[in-house]
Design a protein that fits this description.
Keywords: Allosteric enzyme. It comes from Salix koriyanagi. GO terms for molecular function: 6-phosphofructokinase activity. This is ATP-DEPENDENT 6-PHOSPHOFRUCTOKINASE 4 CHLOROPLASTIC. With 91 residues, the chain is of the alpha+beta class. It folds into two domains: 6-52, no CATH class; 56-91, no CATH class. It has four helices and two strands; from the N terminus they run αββααα. The protein has helices at 9-27, 47-50, 62-70, 84-90; strands at residues 33-38, 41-46. The radius of gyration is 18 Å and the shape is elongated.
Length: 91
């Protein structure tokens, strides 16, 4: 898990669960997999399945702006690429 802000107790528990699941899969003889939640259960997921489709992120979307704000990261967009309400608020 990669974060730009300090972790909390639930992050620690989640990372421990992921690590233990990965070790159990490796000890069971599985290779080329990752672990993660699928339908509210932790599962072994083949790497090929994870990389089949690429998700796109709209860097001009409000959700992206919320992510940047919550992690205190700077936005590298110029004013012509920003959301209209953000540009109006800043000026």
């Amino acid at each position: 898990m990669i974060r730009a802000i300090p972790s909390n107790a639930s992050d620690n528990i989640y990372c421990t669960l992921l690590a233990q699941s990965a070790v159990h899969g490796a000890m069971a003889g599985y290779t080329g997999f990752t672990v993660g939640p699928v339908n509210s259960r932790h599962a072994y997921i083949p790497i090929a399945r994870v990389t089949e489709v690429q998700n796109t992120v709209k860097v001009t979307d409000r959700m992206w702006a919320r992510l940047l704000a919550s992690t205190n990261q700077p936005s590298f967009l110029n004013s012509s690429e920003m959301l209209p309400e953000t540009v109006q608020r800043d000026h």
